Amino acid sequence: MTDPDVIIIGAGHNAMVCAGYLAQKGRSVLIIEQSNHCGGLASTREFFPGFKASVAHTIQNFSSKVIDDLSLTKHGLDLSQYPLQTIGLSRDGECIRLDSSKDQPRVSGLDGKDEEAYAGYMARMQTFADMLKPFWLKTIPRIGSANLQDMTTFLALAVKLRLLGKDEMGEFMRIATLPIRDLMDENFESDLLKAVLSWDGLLGSKMAPRSPNATVLSVLYKMAEKDAGAPKIPVSGIDGLVTALYKSARSSGVEFKLGQPVSRVLMDAGDHGVKAVGVVLADGDVIHARKIVSGVDPKQTFIDLVGVENLEIGFTNRINRLRCDGYVAKLHLALDSLPVFAGLDSPLGRLILVSNMDSIEFAYDDAKYGEFSDRPVMELILPTLCNPDMAPEGKHILSGHVMYIPHQIKGGWTEEAHDRLYQNLIELLEHYAPGIREQIIFGELLTPKDLEHQYNLTGGHWHHAEMAIDQMFMMRPTYEAAQYSTPISGLFLCGAGCHPGGGLSGAPGHNAAIEILRTEQ
Amino acid sequence: MMRSSSIKAGPDHVDFKEVLAPTPFQDRVDSYSLTQDWASWNGYKTAKTYDTLASEYFAIRSTCGVMDLTPMEKYRVGGPDALHFLNRLVTRDISGLQPNRVTYVVWCNDEGKVLDDGTIFSLGGGEYRLCSQHHQLDWLLISSLGFDVTIEEETHSIAALAVQGPTSYSVLSAAGIQELNGLKPFGMINARVNGIECMVSRTGFTGDLGYEIWIDPSNASAIWDAIFALKEQGLFDIRPTGLGALEMVRIEAGFILPGDDFNTAETAIRADHDRSPYELGLGWLVNLQKCYFTGKRALFAEFARPIRRKLVRLSIEGNKPPKDAFLYDRKGGGRIGTIKSCVWSPILKTNVSMADIEYDKGAPPKQIWAEIYYQKELEWRATWAQCRLSIKPFWVHQRSSATPPQKY
Ligand SMILES: Cc1cc2nc3c(=O)[nH]c(=O)nc-3n(C[C@H](O)[C@H](O)[C@H](O)COP(=O)(O)OP(=O)(O)OC[C@H]3O[C@@H](n4cnc5c(N)ncnc54)[C@H](O)[C@@H]3O)c2cc1C
Fold first, then answer.
1. Where are the domains of chain A?
2. What's the Cα-to-Cα distance from B78 to each of B117, B121, B310, rounded to whole Å?
3. Distance between CA atoms of A336 and A348, rounded to whole angstroms?
């Protein structure tokens, strides 16, 4: 085999996006993945005989540009299903439904005042989301760069901001880093509505409604794509996305090597410092390439795969200090039959089990001090309602994202702690869907610690590294590695740890490919 | 303790409220101090002078000066990765450093700007001592991530005494250290003085023949007494010397002082106010062939460009030491730099200084002039003095490297 031009480490969705773009431009690309399947956190696996699930269970902001450029529709991605309704359920039986689709965002189950406020709120947020949209698919330049293209990016942002008009621009600046709770309090009366609307800003982060930081930006990020970030499931499930990405990459000539962990990046010490020239596999095999791209999280990429001895001290320190502790646990239940949720005709939709803003904040408070709450907050879907073949006929699965479950807890994740959390969750579900306990054939709880092991992912973090303002834009994951290139020549990043961050968006992979091609000019 | 001349204030003045730590030599230092003129050195109470600056200066240059070095920051580095760790830290390649040898090093941040300078002692058995001007524990700990090393600050647990000057060899030999005759510069040995175990290195900050003695703090007074006993016996003129004399001899010897001659990268706030090894005239400490070290990328790039400025040694005509003077490319011309530290050198009979000057396309200015302000009968006057670049240290003496040194 001749050496490929580019090796990409990991076959997460971003890696496949990046590979697709590079291969389209004639680069020979080899993806090396440690596990036996593609897709990383989006991969679908059988967690119990006959029952399948993927860690990421819906798509909220996958880039439509990537879909077009990589002809994903042609390769089988079908996103024609109507977005899921978001259904907020409080402990005492209150229920609201959100249709956040762009033309006519609607909320039902509330009084008229909030309904009206909701439409206004969504319209304004959509303006901001549209304004920011181009920047998620762009390299955010290094501060101090005098490069023309970089200046243009900054200029474009300034112009976009200005075009909002003076008042709106001021408003955007004001709310961008506001605690999302303040934004909610300014707009709405219903505590349940506030909690449900905050959810997308919080999910995956170590932040709660009262945290000033990037929660509002996260909402705007999700709203940038179609249907204002309403969750979707492809016709053939999340696997439909992964398979389409795989097929698209293969059709452009991308090679895959599965089941082969990369143990380190091969370095060559040149005059300028060190250069990445290949990878060493766990079995000792060496493969050379002109460029190495890592879809693995930044901390592992640098500390484990590159090795600190090849990195400068200050940079190593910044990487080591990246906040990567995951706060979302994953619950998969194999169910004998469809559970019945009190007050719902059908559990079709994304169910968010939060009572109010405080219930989120309090769950976070426990997590802050290294515990998990007795009353976790969660979102869940029943993927089998959209893709019946994820379970044997007539059977169902429940897929839940549970917040705030720390990667590290006091006393460690003992079997007892694990079990206690699982029982908590079943009790919580039993409250909302009485009888569900008896319907469970098998249950799997993946704490961030489990996700870390299973997916080889630092901290088991949703975004590979916390989406906080100091770890975003030209600081994501940290300066000197924020433009997809790294201090190591020949080494690039393409995963969720890069701008614009995690979630199934394809954006980091897209941006990385553009940047890699740019460096060749 | 309050200074006797308490009317003098200013940056040199130690605030009486500042609580300075005693070094293990404090009893002896106190009893020898006639001036009670103290300074803070890394938080330790340190003598600026004991008696007169001139007598202390000349002790170092013509007989033997003894100085309490304990406040120097000292770190013990051990563990399987110790050498690897140090070699990534410093710009020099120290992989060939043999046990019982010492080497002078600088280390930089990622941008290739100097954080501090110091010496590394190879203690044998894979153990090292790193001595530095400023506190470096934070940086060392940060640097240790991913390395199997132990780092221990031993500033407070190792006492150090410098014995410097032409007769220092004779003094220490008379004190009972026999093995010194074969000890070359930057070498070290383990020895005994009156039964006290000590480590002796042939190192110093004076540019002269000299040694440094490293001991357990509990033996500090005993070592001091063993040395000064020779003076009591009338064998040698041995004097304790303070920071004032050290400042004179170190400038004569061309040694830079981080924090005085340049802003260390950690303390520099404004862009361009930190310095690379090249800009400090320490390019010889940078080994760009070395596989890897922190700052290499930046230094490699800098090396390829013409140097923009440099910390240089300047001798300045006349007898008025131009402290804090601006430098110009001709009398009344364009400003090209400043004097960083300057002393009148009694032995060379000229002003010697460290100066930060701009280079033009990699070349030093053709002429350098200092504008010197001075007071005469309470009236300020200005005068111009021509400065001369000195490539070599102002003061070099073959005795500093002769092995064995001459005996007196
Ligand atoms: C619990 C949870 C739920 C989530 N739910 C959603 C959701 O519903 N919707 C959504 O949009 N996003 C969701 N996310 C976020 C989203 O899944 C991730 O941000 C996204 O999948 C990251 O994609 P990636 O390609 O950057 O990296 P990953 O998917 O993490 O891929 C990295 C790949 O690298 C491989 N790898 C690691 N180390 C090595 C090695 N040494 N050698 C070779 N290969 C290696 C891994 O096996 C993996 O395949 C969720 C995240 C979590 C943790």
1. 6-40+236-323+464-519
2. 20, 12, 35
3. 17
Pocket test for ligand 1, best of A41, A59, A238, A350 (most atoms within 8 A of CB): A41
Tell me, what's the pLDDT at B3? 33
Query: Residues lining ligand 1, judged by CB closer than 6 Å?
Result: A 9-15, 32-35, 40-42, 55-60, 261-262, 295-296, 328, 330, 401, 451, 455-457, 460, 462-463, 495-496, 502-504
CA dihedral angle for residue B110, residue B112, residue B118, residue B119, rounded to 10 degrees: 90
Gap between the Cα atoms of B245 and B242, Å rounded: 6
In Å, what is the CA distance from A383 to each residue of A225, A448, B216? 22, 21, 71
Q: Is B84 on the interface with A (CB under 8 A)?
A: yes
Residue pLDDT, tens place only, A279-307: 999 999 999 999 999 999 999 999 999 99
Contact present, B82 and B154 (Cβ < 8 Å): no
Contacts of B270 (CB under 8 A, 6+ apart): none
Contact flag B297-A271 (C-beta cutoff 8 Å): no
pLDDT of residue B243: 97
Which residues in chain B are contacts of A276 at CB distance < 8 A? none
Distance in angstroms (rounded) separating the CA atoms of residues B147 and B12: 41
Can you give the pTM of this predicted structure?
0.94
For residue B208, give both structure tokens. 């002269």
Structure tokens at A458: 């630092």
pLDDT at position B18, please?
Answer: 63
Spell out the residues 6+ positions from residue A466 whose beta carbon is closer than 8 angstroms to its own.
A205, A206, A322, A323, A324, A325
Q: Indicate the top mutation candidate among A331, A462, A491 to test ligand 1's pocket, ranked by most ligand atoms within 8 A of CB.
A: A462
Q: Which CATH architecture has domain A6-40+236-323+464-519?
A: 3-Layer(bba) Sandwich (3.50)
> What does the pLDDT look like over B134-149, one tens digit per residue?
999 999 999 999 999 9
Q: In this model, does residue A90 exceed pLDDT 60? A: yes
In single-letter form, the type of residue at position A464 comes to: H
Q: Which of A303, A308, A487 sits opposite B297 (nearest CB)?
A: A487
- Dist CA A297 CA A457 (whole Å): 6
| Torsion over CA: A16, A17, A19, A23 (sign) | positive
Residues 6 or more apart whose Cβ sits within 8 Å of residue A514 = A21, A139
Selected for mutation to probe chain A from B83, B86, B88 (highest A CB count within 10 Å) is B88
Which two three-digit tokens encode residue B318? 């006349």
Collect the ranges in chain B with pLDDT lower than 50. Answer: 1-11
Among residues A423, A398, A425, the alpha carbon closest in space to that of A334 is found at A398
Residue A269 above 80 pLDDT? no
Residue nearest to atom 7 of ligand 1 (CA): A56
Say how far apart CA A365 and CA B298 lie, in whole Å: 44
- What is the pLDDT averaged over residues A465-489? 95
Only one residue has tokens 């009486």, namely: B16
Give phi and psi for A230, each to the nearest 5: -65, 135
Contact B142 A313 (CB under 8 A): yes
Please report the domains of chain B, with CATH numbers, ordered by start residue: 26-72+157-252 (3.30.1360.120), 73-153 (3.30.70.1400), 306-390 (2.40.30.110)
Instruction: Please name which of A210, A222, A285, A298 lies closest in space to residue A488, comparing C-alpha atoms.
Output: A298
